[in-house]
Write a structure and sequence with these properties.
Three copies of one chain form a homotrimer.
Chain A lengths: L5 E2 H8 L2 E3 L5 E2 L13 E3 L7 H5 L4 E5 L10 E4 L2 H13 L7 E2 L4 E2 L4 E2 L4 E2 L4 E2 L4 E2 L4 E2 L4 E2 L4 E2 L4 E2 L4 E2 L4 E2 L4 E2 L4 E4 L4 E3 L5 E3 L5 E4 L4 E2 L4 E3 L5 E4 L4 E2 L4 E2 L4 E2 L4 E2 L4 E2 L4 E2 L4 E2 L4 E2 L4 E2 L4 E2 L4 E2 L8 E3 L4 E2 H12 L1 H31 L1
Parallel strand pairs in A: 4-5, 5-6, 7-10, 8-11, 9-12, 10-13, 11-14, 12-15, 13-16, 14-17, 15-18, 16-19, 17-20, 18-23, 19-24, 20-25, 23-26, 24-27, 25-28, 26-29, 27-30, 28-31, 30-33, 31-34, 32-35, 33-36, 34-37, 36-38
Antiparallel strand pairs in A: 1-3, 2-6, 21-22, 38-39
């Protein structure tokens, strides 16, 4: 790994933290409590679990602001040890970009404008009229179509496909096997039941700092753009239909599916295998539980679950009742009998009175 | 795009339409109402939304037969503007096949029979004894196994895999990353719980005009064939198990899964993330709602939803009641108490009478 | 196929079977009852279906131990004809490994240790410092990252990706398009809602005899290992999150998703599209029905269905009641009315008595 060495004072500056202990103590890596070794920094998320610090081999720790001083244990107090840990870990791993150029076994088409400082691996393919910014890495087997634009410091991993006309921003990561810009699913059906393909002539636009997981698919627009906005993070095996918009910083967990023309606001979160039907709007900060199926527009901040998705609290209660349906139904049938008995008795008495 | 120019009279002939306005007016492209520019043709699906014609920049429109005449707006009246639009858009985009031959950086095995008029891109791989018809395009990174047959005008997109022995018809489109002919999932388990692989020695057959979406998988048969019949359109990330038959013109939306040996009739529609268990038959024109899970044979034209799938009307009502289960259950408990009270009173009186 | 010829006596020895008929009868292939031809062996799973033997063209049959003798039909009696069939079919198809070496159109990096007896196809890529054991086959378009280790007789199929640092055992099969070792999905979110990537510095370890389906994804660990243990069989389009452990001989059917840090014991079975949330343990021999969503730890041998998953019997009854909810709810409303009537009458009488 040959990670660099940094002092607690240097690290504290990166994460707006306060050192308690020797600020000149140097650490040379970052790892979680159970796997950190001597000389490394680790992190504690909850002050209540302070005893874990003593069991860890790490030499120093990121801790919450409210943790009391522990003699002999050097710490950096921060607001969010979790976040500070991610920032520091990235700092340890940061390395200057090594530009290996276009590998002699890669293929690049005509009229491309490639920055001098790039790395294109063996057996990668770049089409015609492609523009690629600085410090971009394209791994082996990746296929970049014609007229694609790629910003700076973007990584296209092995065997990913970026179809013609796609526009990718900077610091984007496209994981192995992902397909960007395949045709949307659109047909018109004739009287004989045959499906005539509607041409899919739009593109995909992916903004800065987006990550698209392995074997995920983002379809090109029928017309116009399918748009993944900055900071959105999409997990593996996710399907994004044509003309979908995924808002800034939204999170789509593995195997999610978004049907055509649906738009998501900022910081939407959809759990694993969740889905949204087409032509709806899911507004900012909506959270959809894993496997939720959203059929209607959702207002800002809504939390939903189930399919069709309903408010999460209702869903949670409904599924717990669902699990009890067998016994509730038995009770229901007993009660039905009781009510029938009561009615029968009432009628009997009624009859007796009339007879009297 | 350099789309060609066609007159309204020429276009009307393509779609069995009637021109109202100047039949010699030439248009040079097709786009939806909101994005069409001057000189382009657009389309209106519903006569009631006629005011949209005035807001559009398009020079002429496909309109429904029942739309009244609008002075100064040239139209082509057709039975189905949606369908006519798809046909005309395809006509505008149609271009003669450009055969670039086998790229010097592609690899082709031994004893192949390739039509002279084909395009095989850089870093594509074609195995041994492969037969490829005229006007076929195989894109970069695609891998075609041994003994594969491909009809005419078929397109195999970037990084798709067509495993050995597969037989593809004409005008088939295999999207990027799709895998045709991987092994089916079949094992026999010994007394120790170890799974012995059953050889998967069948093939995949894909008929004319089929489309298979990005990163979808169609498994080869254990014996015999897995068969996707003509005109079926399969979206992205769909799983088709071994020995499945998908009938003519069936539509499988993204992330659908069909387990082994299940057969689908013609024009079956399965919504996104729907699934079918193995060894069942889903007959012609069955519609399965998104996320439906079909466990049993379905008769012609059945419409089902839910998992296990039930008739769609029952499912729709059942899920709306499901959402109300928390309040219904509260009512139920109140009612239980009321019934108990009534019983108690009844017994009290009964007792009083007996005592009297 | 040029399958070899074997006598019933030889075959019986392979599967611990007893020949009834001529032990020197030679057969030259294996197929199911309906497709077996003359000269081939077939198999009958259920003694009750004995009439199928007469309709089959096969020359001999694997049959259950309890099947009575049938004059003129040579059979091998075995405990499990299903399992014996798989073993014998594999024996017929077994062929010596043909080492074609590294294809001149493949690319291999520096400092690799490749066994002499391997086959690396055209346009496959192998990184630096990779170690590959004997009789390994790497197909066209596959990309093997740096520092990967691969045991003996493993097959990496077309366009699969094995990312850097992955360790694969022997007799592993990675199907086309599968991605092993992509980054896990892990972020820390800052106060502005931006997601900071947590470095994913662990690896994937895949033990002997594992099979990973087409376009499936196994994420590398955040730290440490994501571990697929020996004999596990994973179908197509399955998602395995970071730090997951899949126990020995577990079966994950197509489109299953396992979230991060969840661990599965031995011989767990998860049906198609089933899922497990993160950080739980699913113990040995648990069975999850297709589409089941497991939210909690599951004890050894539990059988569950639904989402959130509940015991399978409860789930089966609950879904059958769910389908009847519309009629049950109507009855419920009628009953509510009846109870209200009874109460009203009771109060009326009560009132009458008080008045009297």
């Amino acid at each position: 790994m040959n990670e660099k060495s940094m002092t607690l004072a240097e690290l504290a500056r990166l994460v707006d933290g306060i050192v308690a202990g020797d600020p000149d103590l140097a650490v040379c890596g970052f790892a979680p409590l159970e796997s950190a070794g001597k000389g490394e920094l680790s992190f504690l998320v909850k002050a209540a679990k302070v005893e874990l610090l003593r069991e860890s081999q790490a030499s120093a720790f990121l801790v919450p602001l409210n943790l009391e001083e522990i003699p002999g244990i050097p710490v950096i107090r921060v607001k969010d040890p979790n976040l500070a840990g991610a920032i520091i870990h990235n700092a340890f791993l940061a390395a200057p970009f090594v530009a290996t150029g276009v590998h002699e076994r890669a293929f690049v088409g005509d009229d491309c404008r490639l920055d001098a400082e790039i790395s294109i691996g063996p057996l990668a393919v770049v089409g015609d009229r492609v523009r690629i910014g600085g410090r971009v890495r394209i791994e082996s087997g990746a296929v970049i179509g014609d007229d694609v634009e790629i910003g700076e410091e973007t990584v296209i991993k092995a065997n990913a496909v970026i179809s013609s006309g796609s526009r990718l921003g900077s610091r984007v990561i496209i994981h192995p096997g992902a397909v960007i810009g395949s045709d949307g699913y659109g047909y018109a059906t004739d009287a004989g039941g045959n499906h005539i393909k509607r041409p899919q002539v739009g593109i995909v636009r992916i903004d800065d700092d987006v990550e698209i997981g392995a074997n995920s698919c983002v379809d090109r627009a029928a017309y116009g753009v399918t748009w993944i906005k900055s900071g959105a993070k999409i997990d593996n095996l996710v399907q994004i239909g044509h003309n979908v918009v995924v808002g800034e910083n939204s999170l789509l967990v593995a195997q999610v599916g978004i049907a055509g023309s649906t738009t998501l606001g900022r910081n939407v979160v959809m759990g694993g295998q969740a889905a949204a039907t087409g032509h709806i709007h899911i507004d900012d900060r909506v959270m959809v539980a894993a496997r939720g199926g959203v059929h209607d527009n959702q207002p800002k901040g809504a939390m939903v679950g189930g399919a069709p998705a309903i408010p999460i609290r209702t869903w949670t209660r409904a599924v717990s009742i669902f699990a009890k349906l067998p016994e509730i139904y038995s009770e229901f049938k007993r009660m039905k009998k009781n009510v029938a008995d009561l009615q029968a008795k009432g009628e009997e008495k009624e009859g007796a009175r009339r007879d009297a």
